[in-house]
UniProtKB/TrEMBL annotation:
A cellular-component GO term for this protein: cytoplasm
Originating organism: Thioalkalivibrio versutus
ACT domain segment(s): 91-172
Protein name, per record: Glycine cleavage system transcriptional repressor
Keywords: Cytoplasm, Repressor, Transcription
Keyword Ribonucleoprotein: no
Family matches, as Pfam families: ACT_6
Subcellular locations according to the entry: Cytoplasm
GO biological process, one term: regulation of DNA-templated transcription
Amino acid sequence: MKTSVILTVIGPDRPGLVSAVAARARAAGGNWLESRMAQLAGQFAGVVLLEAEADAADQLEAALRELEGDGLQIQIKRGSELPAPPWHRVMLDLVGHDRPGIVQDITAILSRHGVSVETLDTACKPGSMTGEPMFHAQAQLGVPEDLDLDTLQDALEALANELMVDLELHDPQHEPPEAA
Protein backbone atom coordinates (compact mmCIF):
# COMPACT_ATOMS: atom_id res chain seq x y z
CA MET A 1 0.00 0.00 0.00
CA LYS A 2 1.25 3.49 -0.89
CA THR A 3 1.37 6.46 1.47
CA SER A 4 1.40 10.12 0.43
CA VAL A 5 3.98 12.34 2.11
CA ILE A 6 3.74 16.13 1.77
CA LEU A 7 6.97 18.03 2.31
CA THR A 8 7.35 21.78 2.73
CA VAL A 9 10.82 23.23 2.66
CA ILE A 10 12.12 26.78 3.06
CA GLY A 11 15.59 28.17 3.40
CA PRO A 12 18.29 30.27 1.77
CA ASP A 13 18.37 29.64 -1.97
CA ARG A 14 21.44 27.98 -3.42
CA PRO A 15 22.34 25.81 -6.41
CA GLY A 16 21.70 22.10 -5.85
CA LEU A 17 18.98 22.49 -3.24
CA VAL A 18 16.26 20.75 -5.29
CA SER A 19 18.74 18.05 -6.24
CA ALA A 20 19.53 17.43 -2.56
CA VAL A 21 15.83 17.04 -1.73
CA ALA A 22 15.27 14.74 -4.72
CA ALA A 23 18.31 12.60 -3.86
CA ARG A 24 17.18 12.09 -0.25
CA ALA A 25 13.66 11.23 -1.35
CA ARG A 26 14.83 8.74 -3.97
CA ALA A 27 17.39 7.08 -1.71
CA ALA A 28 14.66 6.49 0.90
CA GLY A 29 12.24 4.97 -1.63
CA GLY A 30 10.15 8.09 -2.28
CA ASN A 31 8.57 8.78 -5.65
CA TRP A 32 8.28 12.50 -6.54
CA LEU A 33 4.72 13.13 -7.83
CA GLU A 34 4.02 16.88 -7.74
CA SER A 35 5.73 20.06 -6.61
CA ARG A 36 5.48 23.84 -6.53
CA MET A 37 8.75 25.65 -5.94
CA ALA A 38 10.01 29.20 -6.17
CA GLN A 39 12.82 31.52 -5.22
CA LEU A 40 11.23 34.40 -3.31
CA ALA A 41 13.33 37.30 -2.00
CA GLY A 42 16.46 35.19 -1.73
CA GLN A 43 14.71 32.28 -0.04
CA PHE A 44 13.77 28.98 -1.62
CA ALA A 45 10.27 27.73 -0.83
CA GLY A 46 8.75 24.49 -2.00
CA VAL A 47 5.94 22.05 -1.50
CA VAL A 48 6.41 18.48 -2.72
CA LEU A 49 4.04 15.52 -2.86
CA LEU A 50 5.94 12.26 -2.53
CA GLU A 51 4.67 8.70 -2.45
CA ALA A 52 6.26 5.73 -0.70
CA GLU A 53 5.36 2.24 0.36
CA ALA A 54 3.60 2.45 3.73
CA ASP A 55 6.37 0.51 5.49
CA ALA A 56 9.03 2.92 4.09
CA ALA A 57 7.28 6.21 4.95
CA ASP A 58 9.03 6.59 8.33
CA GLN A 59 12.42 6.07 6.67
CA LEU A 60 11.51 8.66 4.01
CA GLU A 61 10.54 11.20 6.67
CA ALA A 62 13.79 10.61 8.58
CA ALA A 63 15.87 11.06 5.43
CA LEU A 64 14.09 14.32 4.58
CA ARG A 65 14.51 15.66 8.12
CA GLU A 66 18.29 15.31 7.71
CA LEU A 67 18.03 18.33 5.37
CA GLU A 68 17.35 20.49 8.44
CA GLY A 69 21.08 20.24 9.17
CA ASP A 70 21.66 22.11 5.90
CA GLY A 71 19.83 25.20 7.20
CA LEU A 72 16.42 24.29 5.79
CA GLN A 73 13.13 24.37 7.63
CA ILE A 74 11.23 21.17 6.94
CA GLN A 75 7.63 20.20 7.64
CA ILE A 76 6.24 16.81 6.76
CA LYS A 77 2.64 15.61 6.80
CA ARG A 78 1.09 12.36 5.68
CA GLY A 79 -1.68 12.62 3.14
CA SER A 80 -5.15 11.27 3.69
CA GLU A 81 -7.36 9.40 1.30
CA LEU A 82 -10.47 11.54 1.56
CA PRO A 83 -13.20 11.21 -1.06
CA ALA A 84 -13.14 13.95 -3.68
CA PRO A 85 -15.68 16.69 -2.95
CA PRO A 86 -18.50 17.20 -5.45
CA TRP A 87 -17.13 20.13 -7.46
CA HIS A 88 -15.72 21.00 -10.80
CA ARG A 89 -12.70 23.07 -11.72
CA VAL A 90 -12.92 26.65 -12.91
CA MET A 91 -10.06 28.99 -13.84
CA LEU A 92 -9.67 32.57 -12.61
CA ASP A 93 -7.37 35.12 -14.27
CA LEU A 94 -6.82 38.58 -12.80
CA VAL A 95 -4.67 41.57 -13.80
CA GLY A 96 -4.68 45.02 -12.24
CA HIS A 97 -2.61 47.75 -10.66
CA ASP A 98 -0.91 46.37 -7.59
CA ARG A 99 -2.24 47.35 -4.19
CA PRO A 100 -2.42 45.65 -0.79
CA GLY A 101 -5.43 43.42 -0.18
CA ILE A 102 -6.26 42.09 -3.66
CA VAL A 103 -5.75 38.42 -2.72
CA GLN A 104 -7.68 38.79 0.55
CA ASP A 105 -10.60 40.56 -1.15
CA ILE A 106 -10.92 37.98 -3.93
CA THR A 107 -10.49 34.95 -1.67
CA ALA A 108 -13.04 36.32 0.81
CA ILE A 109 -15.68 36.23 -1.94
CA LEU A 110 -14.59 32.75 -3.00
CA SER A 111 -14.81 31.54 0.60
CA ARG A 112 -18.29 33.00 1.09
CA HIS A 113 -19.44 30.98 -1.91
CA GLY A 114 -17.81 27.73 -0.70
CA VAL A 115 -15.17 27.80 -3.44
CA SER A 116 -11.83 26.11 -2.76
CA VAL A 117 -8.58 27.58 -4.10
CA GLU A 118 -6.73 24.54 -5.49
CA THR A 119 -3.81 26.41 -7.01
CA LEU A 120 -2.85 30.08 -6.93
CA ASP A 121 0.01 31.66 -8.84
CA THR A 122 0.67 35.37 -8.41
CA ALA A 123 3.30 37.83 -9.58
CA CYS A 124 3.87 41.55 -9.60
CA LYS A 125 5.43 42.76 -12.86
CA PRO A 126 6.02 46.16 -14.45
CA GLY A 127 3.26 47.14 -16.87
CA SER A 128 4.26 47.04 -20.54
CA MET A 129 3.25 50.65 -21.29
CA THR A 130 3.70 52.50 -18.01
CA GLY A 131 6.16 50.39 -16.06
CA GLU A 132 3.83 50.65 -13.03
CA PRO A 133 3.55 47.47 -10.92
CA MET A 134 0.79 45.21 -12.22
CA PHE A 135 -0.54 42.35 -10.11
CA HIS A 136 -1.22 39.10 -11.99
CA ALA A 137 -3.04 36.10 -10.54
CA GLN A 138 -4.10 32.76 -11.96
CA ALA A 139 -6.06 30.31 -9.87
CA GLN A 140 -7.63 26.92 -10.32
CA LEU A 141 -10.77 26.81 -8.23
CA GLY A 142 -12.89 23.95 -6.94
CA VAL A 143 -16.48 25.15 -7.33
CA PRO A 144 -19.35 23.30 -5.63
CA GLU A 145 -21.59 21.60 -8.18
CA ASP A 146 -24.67 23.34 -6.78
CA LEU A 147 -23.20 26.86 -7.10
CA ASP A 148 -24.52 28.87 -10.03
CA LEU A 149 -21.43 30.22 -11.82
CA ASP A 150 -23.31 33.37 -12.85
CA THR A 151 -23.81 34.19 -9.16
CA LEU A 152 -20.11 33.78 -8.49
CA GLN A 153 -19.22 35.74 -11.64
CA ASP A 154 -21.49 38.63 -10.58
CA ALA A 155 -19.92 38.80 -7.10
CA LEU A 156 -16.40 38.74 -8.53
CA GLU A 157 -17.19 41.33 -11.21
CA ALA A 158 -18.62 43.72 -8.61
CA LEU A 159 -15.38 43.46 -6.67
CA ALA A 160 -13.27 43.71 -9.84
CA ASN A 161 -14.95 47.03 -10.64
CA GLU A 162 -14.29 48.27 -7.11
CA LEU A 163 -10.63 47.16 -7.26
CA MET A 164 -10.23 48.33 -10.87
CA VAL A 165 -8.83 45.00 -12.04
CA ASP A 166 -9.62 42.84 -15.05
CA LEU A 167 -10.97 39.51 -13.89
CA GLU A 168 -12.01 36.52 -15.98
CA LEU A 169 -13.69 33.40 -14.66
CA HIS A 170 -13.93 30.56 -17.15
CA ASP A 171 -15.09 26.99 -16.98
CA PRO A 172 -12.92 24.77 -19.22
CA GLN A 173 -15.66 22.10 -19.21
CA HIS A 174 -18.09 24.45 -20.97
CA GLU A 175 -15.82 26.19 -23.46
CA PRO A 176 -15.80 25.29 -27.13
CA PRO A 177 -12.66 23.49 -28.31
CA GLU A 178 -10.06 25.71 -29.95
CA ALA A 179 -9.98 25.71 -33.73
CA ALA A 180 -6.99 23.93 -35.23
